[in-house]
Structures are given as C-alpha cells and as structure tokens.
Amino acid sequence: MVRKDWASQNSIALSWQEPDFPHGAILDYEIKYYEKEHEQLSYSSTRSKAPSVIITGLKPATKYIFHIRVRTAAGYSGYSQKFEFETGDETSDMAAEQGQILVIATAAVGGFTLLVILTLFFLITGRCQWYIKAKMKSEEKRRAHLQNGDLRFPGVKTYIDPDTYEDPSLAVHEFAKEIDPSRIRIERVIGAGEFGEVCSGRLKTPGKREIPVAIKTLKGGYVDRQRRDFLREASIMGQFDHPNIIRLEGVVTKSRPVMIVVEYMENGSLDSFLRKHDGHFTVIQLVGMLRGIASGMKYLSDMGYVHRDLAARNILVNSNLMCKVSDFGLSRVLEDDPEAAYTTSGGKIPIRWTAPEAIAYRKFSSASDAWSYGIVMWEVMSYGERPYWEMSNQDVILSIEEGYRLPAPMGCPASLHQLMLHCWQKERNHRPKFSDIVSFLDKLIRNPSTLHTLVEDVLVMPDSPGEVPEYPLFVSVSDWLDSIKMGQYKNNFMAAGFTTLDMVSRMSIE
Ligand code: ACK
What we know:
By secondary structure, this protein is α+β, with helices and mostly antiparallel strands. It has five domains: 2-86, Sandwich (Immunoglobulin-like); 92-147; 162-263, Phosphorylase Kinase, domain 1; 270-458, Transferase(Phosphotransferase) domain 1 (Transferase(Phosphotransferase), domain 1); 485-510, no CATH class. The protein has 16 helices and 17 strands. The protein has helices spanning 90-125, 129-145, 168-175, 224-237, 270-276, 283-302, 331-336, 356-361, 366-381, 393-401, 414-423, 434-446, 455-460, 477-483, 490-495, 501-505; strands at residues 2-7, 12-16, 26-35, 44-48, 52-55, 63-72, 75-76, 83-86, 184-192, 197-203, 211-217, 248-252, 259-263, 315-317, 323-325, 341-342, 348-349. The radius of gyration is 27 Å and the shape is globular. The chain starts with a strand and ends in a 5-residue tail after the last helix. 2',3'- cyclic AMP binds at residues 190-191, 193, 198, 214, 246, 262, 264-265, 268-269, 272, 316. Its main location: membrane.
C-alpha cells in the first residue's frame, strides 16, 4: 500500500509498508513513475533504500502513476499495483504557507503555553503536516543537489541491469515492445552477428508510414542461455531514448525466428565507413561525429550504464552522418567482439580500447569508458586506423604502463589530441567526464579557428618562429590547464617559466 504523505507543485512524498515476507534482505526499492496522460511516452525511475521517497522535478497539478518494487539479493519482485497521485497547484502551496503563518502568529500571541497546547493538538490530529512538509522541502532541495543520492537525476531514468531479474524474459518484456512479425518485411542480409544474420528491411506501424529497420535474428537450434544472451541487448537498448543511441523498435519473441528490430543506419559501422571514405571529411564534420558519440555516452553515464566496449566498430552511422552508440550487452559484448582477448585476470577484453585499471583488475566505469572514447577519437581522426597499429596486445599494455600514448594522427588539431591525452590519464579521476567532453567539443565547433592549429604546427614551431599558433579557446595558461583538468600542474608551468599561452605553444619536446 503506497501513501502520499504530501505534495507540493513539483514534488510528491510517498511512503509504504515494507513487504511482510521479502525473499532475503531488502537492498532497495525502485520507484517507477510517469505522467498519467503520457503513459506511452516515457517514464522515470528512482531508488530509495528506505520505504519512502520524495520525488522532485514534477509538473504542477498533474496526475502521476507510481509503481514500486523491491530488490533483494534474489533479484526484483514484481511491481506493485499502480498508484495515482496528483501534484499540488499554486493554491495548495499557498495554503500550506498560510497555515504556517497562522500557526506562528497564534503561537506569538498565545505564548509558550498555547504553543505547547497547539503543538500537542496538531500532533494528535496529524495536522503537523505543514511542518513536516516545510522540513522535507528543505531536505528535498538538499538531496536534489546530491547527484549520488536516491534522487540522482530527477527526470532521468536509471539503468536497470536485466540480469538482476529473477526471470530475464520478464526484463525483455518490460523494456521492449513485442512486434507482430507480419509487420516486418525482411529485404536482404547485411551482415553476420554472433547469434545469426543481420538483415535490413521495413517495419510497418498502423497509422504510420513504413520505416527502414535492421533486424538481428537468432539462428535456430539455440539453447536457452543463447536466447537469453541475445535478448539481453534488447532489454538494455529498450531502456535508452537518445538521438545518439541506437533505437530499439521492438522484439519478436513469441514466434520463430526470434528477432531484435532496431533503427536502420544507412552507413553501417563507423570504422569501416571511415576507412571507405579516407580523407573525405572536413575536421568540423569529424568533430561533429565525435560530439554525437560523446553526447550519447554522456546520456549512458548519466543513467549509470557502463558500455565497456566503446570502439568505432560499435558505433553506427546514418545517412546524415549522425553517429549512434550500439552493441549493448555487458560481458556478452566482449565475448562477441573479435578484438577482445583473454587477460590474466580472466574475462575477455578489447585491450587496445580499454583503460589500464579495467585490464588489470576489471575496474570498468564511466571513466574507463572515457579512456575508450579517447581511442575512438583517435580512430576517427585517423579515418579508421588500427590503434597502436600492429603492436601486440602485450606490447600495448607495457607501453601504456610506461607512459607511452598514441601520437596525434596526421592533420589532427592540437586541441583534439590534447583531449585524447586527457582521456588517457592513468589516474581515472583525472579523466574528463562526458559532460566535459561534450562542452569542450561544442566550444571547438563554435570557434572553428581553434581547430586550425595542428599538432604538426606546434612541433615545428621552433623552426618557423614567424607565426605563433595559439589556443584561442583559453585566455590564460591556468584557464587552459583547468579546462583539461590539469589545474594541479599550474605551479609547474609557472615555475618553468610558461606564463602565457604563447609560450606554451612554443614549447618544444626538449
Ligand atoms: O559495417 P556494417 O555494414 O554495419 O556491417 C555490420 C553488420 O550489420 C553486422 O553487424 C551492420 N549493422 C548492424 N546494425 C545495423 C543497423 N542498425 N543499421 C545498419 N546496419 C547495421 C553493421
């Protein structure tokens, strides 16, 4: 039974009773909610360790539907029935505030005794809600600022690992629509996946025009585990809704072959696309692609999803050169990736794309995804060159450990190589967040002249002192160091006499 404790214009506080017989200790509760009017469009979810929550960021005077489920070590329970509650309007907030003023005035006039009596009266009649509400409002504000609290990102969904479902087939039906196969027209085979063929085709939706789709099929003769692994990708993809994440249209699970239907990306995988069009794009076009990938990754990291296999081969490109992150499936992705190799710590890892801490002790995080993002930047700027060329995996690991980093590809703007180096910092907390990467790339796109200084130009400077390359994005050395999260080196730069950007740009390798 879920109760509404109070509601303001933008928030609702709920509480509920703990279940009588949970299957094991309760880890937390997941609260899923959406506007009643827009049930089909999107929903949000949040978690709480206690049997209560304050949900913020809601619209005033709007009906919301809530369901709650409990997570124990055994996995998730089913969702509770739906509960409908409405946020308050202006008058409800005013009434609450007027209530406060009235009580304070009465207390002042009547003195302490009256206050005690009133307090008792209010407590007994349960009408102290104005006080609780005011207190919870300030608590709510405090928590809204705490990004890692129960209300991490009001309005942004949190990723739910389908493996935490007792029955993973429940997960797929929760996150993916079942498509009637008669709506799908398969046209041709476009590739081979680990589980079966990948085809292109059309999807008809009643009342809408046909859309081009890619259809991944599960080949016959599969065992249960393969079916589950195949559908895991749909359970993950179905939770995302972002222009730079490949969109799931739905699944076919009730007839054979089992299929996953996704949006069609005319130009296929980014690595082969770039190799096919070597040297064809402007730097701004390449930066636009990188910006799209960073934006998709920002969305994933905000949702708490770690990709683990970010590489150009796992990015798809459409006819407008829009790049979208694809290939979801956690460890299974790595099993399927031909680049993944077994490591001494066990498990398969695509060494060249992976951060050292993830290779050494499987510490995967959004920061290790940022390392991989730096490698994707390098792949893009070199038109699909293989990172570290023909070096062996072992040599790559050793060289990185010794401090070696990929040099800038030919024709690469210095600012982009700086960003790559920034993503490849050994200390993972020093790497940029995806939000930093997006805003850095946005700045470059808005000031294209910042892309004119190539790494080659910076290095040949001592021989050509005539023209001074600059980093016009930054006004001072310390501004520049802060922007690449290397502010801790300000003193070293100053002590070494590099007090202006001009001097930094004249720095030679020696
Ligand atoms: O490089 P490609 O042409 O792009 O070859 C691979 C192949 O299927 C096997 O994965 C292509 N592919 C995968 N998903 C899609 C999609 N959504 N749209 C278009 N092509 C796709 C991929």
